[in-house]
Amino acid sequence: MSKSKGALKYSIFLVLPLKLNLKTPIAAILLLGLLSCRTQKDIVLYESDNLKVERLTKSTFRHISYLLTEDFGKVSCNGMIVADNNEALIFDTPTNDDDSRELIDWVEKNLKCKVTGVVVTHFHNDCLGGLAEFHGRQIPSYASFRTIELAKSNNLQVPQTGFEDSLALKVGDEKVINEFLGEGHTIDNIVSYFPAEKVLFGGCLIKAMGANKGYLGDANTNEWANTVQAVKAKYGKAKVIIPGHGDPGNSDLLTYTIELFKFVFPNLLSGQGIPEEVSQEIQRRISLEINPGISIGLLLPSGEAKFYNYGQYNDHANQKADSLTLYEIGSVTKTFTATLAGLHLKDAFGAYLSDIFIQTDNPSLGQITLSDLRNHLSGMPRLSEQFSPRDWSDPYNGYSDSILYEELQNVKPDTVKRWSYSNFGYGILGKALEIATRRDFEDLMGDLLLKAGMKHTFLTHQIDSLHRLAQPTNIGTGNSYWNFTGPSRYAGGLLSCTKDLIHYLQYQQANNPLFYSDSINGLVNTGIVELGKDHLFYKDGWLVFKPDGHTEILFHNGGTGGFTAFLAFNKNTKTGVAVLSNSVSLADDIGLKLIYPDFPLKRPGRTIAYELADEIDKGNVENLAPKYNQLKREGYPDNIIDIYWLERFFFGRGDYSISDQLSDIMVQVLPDDWEVFDIKGQNLERLEKYEEAVKVYRKALELNPENGLLKDKIKRCAAISD
After folding, report:
1. What pLDDT does residue 72 have?
2. What pLDDT digit, counting tens, does each position of 387-420 carry?
């Protein structure tokens, strides 16, 4: 079950309810299941706004309560009642104490039964959310020891009596068998079987006919089908089966659940390649020019590599990509820098920056260690306040050691030790590497590339293989390459291809404990809630994604002005993926889908920015903000990040009359973002509208009072306007 608002401390990483891609076997099961499901309408004995009770057989009943969830809305939740000879057992509580009170009162009054116990089938709120009411009425509660442990660790109401694998409970003259048969929806889920009438309460381990996979935040999807297979082997003759949600059925529910979960990683593990669903989505993005070209490398558990390429990497020459086509990989470079740090600084991670940059007089450096830099805990800003490129279409070209030292002299890091992603921090880490080893970027990085067998990865665009370099694009238009210079190279400077990145994953798999250890200690919570609360962590250069209770995926993505890159490895299945594209539109979801099929594909559309880019290409460069507003009213999809990329592109090209109009859109959409007003000010300054620039820079400073660079800009423009 999904997390309820204000209850469980769990969330999901965008694992939304899946729309099954119904191929013949599952479609057939669906059809047969629907035809063979119980057609007799269950008899409703009681119904209120919050509770419903239906008779299933002579002695069994289904109680239904409701849970408001963040991910699936209002969800109906099933429980079971077994009554015999003036006694009743209840299986799973309603979702809160008020509804439990209503249920117990109804059982006592209408069934004339004493409630002798309640069984909790797993630790989620739809099973024990109303447990306190049972305890308050001196009704004993039972659960597996696993459930009791999980309830305690999550500060939930704790069942009283535990059992290891099996517990038979007497009710009247009959009994109910409660049994743990393996992990699935959770690591503690049990089933309860009433032999006298062959009724099985499967709880959330069993899915109703046509249901999707639902909440997977605590699931073991690798074992789910095997566990239900064990349930089927033991209780497959059950006449009535009650799932955790949805309508009861017969043994077809077991078959359906097995089929739903047994096809984990079918394409990768069988070597079949890219699933049709993914391939179709890639082709859709290419046809819309969202991603002109996409190159994919897959690492199979056997160690075999497979490569797939879509679209073109050079539109003018109509050239098709292959596994050696080169792309800028942006921040994926940081994993290489982190690896170099592990090789050369492992005995010095506790050293402070003041011990390394001894000629820099900034007391705050004495509070930051090399380990802090490596794990984005340094408090360093994403970019330094003094970062002001001469050419925004190639922003890191010209960055140097002297600029870094000046920035270090003046930087004021955040003193709170929380995770905060910093390009600037990785430039500092790279320079620290050079100082500690007395070696330069070419020597350090070249040595690592040689060890990893990466013969087609380069440190600069000045290469003999330039003809293999993909053409960068930005919102459907050609863009500039990004030439990283100086320490910035450690943050994003590498060019690579899918073939080499698969070699790199193999190198990490063999040499990096993060990739082969059973568990990773010291993970840093990123706090990124957009990707699921408490599901995204960071450690030594890699993001660690935990989409369920048993999966760890190491990954990093990257982007420049015309490229995106994604590299990931699923530790559970030993499958890896590299996805490269000559576009600023991320394809991370494609990579995750390939190595973790429960991850949903996004369907990015041609946003308003693409339409504006087309208008600009046609020479229609006036009234861009009104055109934006008109397209928005017409329902075109919108993404302000795309507008940002388009603005930076034209600003970098010196087309300030265009970029200024695009900055107006950004101010309209993000009126509380200081960087947006900074960008607007940059445009006004380049257009020599200095008085207006001063006003806008002052607004940016109002939103970010500590920014010294904004103060300098205000002084500069004010002096010129006077």
Report:
1. 66
2. 878 788 889 999 999 999 999 999 999 888 899 9
> Which CATH superfamily is 270-595 part of?
DD-peptidase/beta-lactamase superfamily (3.40.710.10)
CA distance 693 to 687: 9
Least confident of 85-94, 454-463, 474-483, 550-559: 474-483
Q: Can you tell me which residue has the tokens 């009554």?
A: 83
Q: Can you list the alpha helix ranges (DSSP code H) found in 548-703? A: 588-595, 608-617, 624-633, 640-652, 656-669, 674-686, 690-703
Please determine, for residue 153, whether its predicted confidence score (pLDDT) is greater than 60. Answer: yes
Tell me if residue 34 falls in helix, strand or coil: helix
Reduced to 3 states (helix: H, G, I; strand: E, B; else coil), residue 409 is helix
Helix intervals (H) in 181-272: 221-235, 252-262, 266-270
Cβ atoms of 579 and 263 closer than 8 Å? no
Q: What is the mean pLDDT of residues 589-618?
A: 91
Cα 719–Cα 381–Cα 640 angle in degrees, nearest 5: 80
Distance (Å, whole) CA 437 – CA 328: 27
pLDDT score recorded for residue 312: 84
Strands (DSSP E) found in 238-314: 240-243, 293-299, 305-314
CB 296 within 8 A of CB 579: yes
Q: What is the pLDDT of residue 270?
A: 56
The residue type at 656: Y
Write down the mean pLDDT value for the chain: 89
Smallest CA-to-CA distance from 378 within 344, 433, 335, 428 is with 428
Q: Is 0.70 topped by the overall pTM?
A: no
Q: Would you state the structure tokens that stand for residue 3, as one six-digit string?
A: 């997390």
CA gap 78, 87 in Å, rounded? 20
Q: Which residue has the higher pLDDT, 431 or 606?
A: 431
Structure tokens at 151: 């309830």
Give first-to-last CA distance, the chain, whole Å.
65
- Residue 675, Cβ density class (10 Å: 0-12 exposed, 13-18 middle, ≥19 buried): middle
**Which strands sit side by side in the sheet containing 191-194, from one edge to the other?**
166-171, 174-179, 191-194, 199-203, 240-243
R_g of the chain computed on alpha carbons: 30
Residue 592 pairs with which residues in a beta bridge?
none
- Architecture of the CATH domain 24-264: 4-Layer Sandwich (3.60)
Q: What angle do CA 202, 208, 210 make, to 5 degrees?
A: 155
Domains 24-264 and 608-721 fall in the same CATH topology: no
Residues in the chain: 722
CA quadruple 227, 192, 36, 62: dihedral sign: negative
C-alpha distances (whole Å) from 51 to each of 63, 89, 95, 104, 117 are: 7, 17, 10, 11, 19
Exposed e or buried b for every residue in 22-46, given b needs 16+ CB within 10 A? eeeebeebbeebeeebeeeebeeeb
| pLDDT, tens only, 24-36 | 232 222 222 222 3
Q: Looking at per-residue confidence, does 551 or 554 come out higher? A: 554
Residue-wise over 548-571: b if at least 16 C-beta within 10 A, else e? bbbbbbbbbbbbbbbbbbbbbbbb
- Give the residue among 384, 507, 513 at the shortest CA–CA distance from 453: 507
CATH 1.25.40.10 fits 608-721, yes or no: yes
Residue 130 has phi, psi (to 5 degrees) of -110, 25
Task: Please state the domain extents for the chain.
Answer: 24-264, 270-595, 608-721
